[in-house]
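Input record, target 12 of the design panel.
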């Protein structure tokens, strides 16, 4: 199932993407008599009950919206944690001139960094080296602590598309990457969360285009640490909660990976599109 959030009356509303359009869950449910969750967080926390109810709702007399007319919200809006993995493709570590890590390199973003599909992202003053990073993002579905690699993917509710936008001059100003990674709007996610029963995260094509030009093209099988290994490793040190997001790293092709004289950093007016096989395309414009 493909779930999304859209803005209506000033708040994020739950929708379901289908061949007929986007189902407005709350509006449809009120006319059906079914008691279904109206918010993404509720679906994630109790998916075993919520997903069959939503599937039944879709089969009924649904209230459809035209997708091109909706205003998206971030597909997950209230994660307790946004955990990111650096240098998780060998080719990206090589192009960055950094050693291939022996354990996952972790850093964080905060909720202020979340942005939606089609949202325009403002570039802040005082920094200029803006870069893209196409990434597969995991949405955690249940409280998870010290899970084994073999059981780890059972903790994943679904998958979405992310762009780990980065201000490289701020990122490397100190040994800590946080400032260059957590600027407002620098973690767009969406447009959908695709439930885990429909996705094989170990073999997904992933690409990024800037102003229509292909910049990144790879497959998630090239990850150094796969999704199951990441969930197991992270949960060994911190408890993951429903709705937490894990950005799993980016492949080669980022601007930082080019020789210094060939780097043309992103600027106002640029348009970015990150596509992951089966998950959709996340589009954002910079200003």
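The sequence produced for target 12 reads:
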């Amino acid at each position: 199932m493909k779930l999304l959030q859209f803005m209506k009356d000033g708040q994020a509303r739950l929708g379901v993407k289908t061949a007929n359009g986007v189902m407005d869950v709350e509006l449809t449910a009120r006319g059906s008599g079914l008691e279904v969750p109206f918010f993404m967080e509720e679906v994630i926390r109790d998916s075993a009950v919520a997903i069959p109810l939503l599937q039944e709702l879709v089969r009924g007399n649904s209230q459809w919206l035209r997708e091109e007319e909706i205003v998206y919200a971030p597909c997950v809006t209230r994660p307790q944690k946004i955990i990111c993995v650096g240098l998780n493709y060998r080719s990206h570590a090589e192009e960055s001139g950094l050693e291939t890590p022996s354990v996952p390199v972790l850093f964080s973003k905060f909720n202020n960094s979340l942005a939606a599909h089609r949202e325009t992202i403002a570039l802040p003053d005082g920094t200029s080296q803006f870069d893209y990073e196409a990434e597969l993002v995991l949405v955690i579905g249940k409280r998870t602590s010290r899970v084994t690699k073999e059981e780890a993917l059972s903790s994943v509710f679904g998958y979405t598309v992310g762009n780990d936008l980065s201000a490289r001059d701020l990122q490397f100003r100190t040994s800590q990457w946080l400032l260059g990674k957590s600027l407002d709007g620098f973690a767009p996610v969406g447009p959908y969360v695709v439930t885990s029963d429909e996705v094989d995260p170990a073999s997904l094509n992933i690409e990024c285009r800037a102003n229509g030009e292909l910049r990144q093209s790879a497959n998630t099988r090239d990850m150094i640490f796969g999704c199951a290994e990441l969930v197991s490793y992270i949960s060994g040190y911190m408890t993951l909660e429903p709705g937490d997001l894990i950005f799993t790293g980016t492949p080669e092709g980022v601007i930082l990976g080019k020789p210094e004289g060939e780097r043309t950093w992103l600027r106002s007016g640029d348009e970015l599109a990150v596509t992951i096989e089966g998950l959709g395309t996340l589009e954002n414009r910079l200003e």
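Residues 129 and 168 are 5 Å apart (CA to CA).
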